[in-house]
Amino acid sequence: MIKVYGYPKTRALRVTWLLEELELDYEYHLINFAKGESQSPEFLAINPAGKVPALEIDGQVIFESGAIVTFLADKYASGKLIPNAGTVERARHDQWSYFVLTELEQPLWTMGKHKFAIPKEYRVAEVLPTAAWEFQRALTVLSKGLGDKEYILGDSFSVADLLIAQTLRWGLSFKQAIEQPNLIDYLNRMESRSARSLADQRETQALAEQG
């Protein structure tokens, strides 16, 4: 059985969304940050960083969303949702995936840390304008890379698209403007996928059940 440890509106959506795309059965274990569950000894034994998502499969635990979705796609959909290893197409896929994690997401996480995530005494409000500038710069690069293609690699949806779309939505939730028409159209296409809706429902249900 596949177990996902997550919380709604976090990077865990990347994992649940992919699992829905793959049509795999999985258990969703809510880690409620408001109740301190992310810092419990039980969860820290799963992910020492105290963050979601984490994945448990075949008696093994994997954390870091990029590693999880790459593993799942390689295991269950190689050549479909992710290009085969050792190909130029895979290198391009990884190029954009790493771009998301290191360039597009990084300034958003900087904002999050200095607004609410780290202790108040370590927050530096002066970094927020710089982070916003960095995000806009990354959007410009992404917009040029996407061009008029339907998906980042061309004609086929991939894990890289999932990573991009979730991060763009995160940017909007942080009230960061996305002014490139091709990125807005792209995000709407990605979020209209049925697997995305199913993932949202699964996470919302888990939160409602915990009360």
UniProtKB/TrEMBL annotation:
Domain GST N-terminal per the UniProt entry, residue ranges: 1-80
Protein name: Glutathione S-transferase
CDD domains in the record: GST_C_8, GST_N_GTT1_like
Record-annotated GST C-terminal domain positions: 86-210
Record keyword Transferase present: yes
Recorded family membership: Belongs to the GST superfamily.
Gene Ontology molecular function, alphabetical: transferase activity
Keywords, sorted A to Z: Transferase
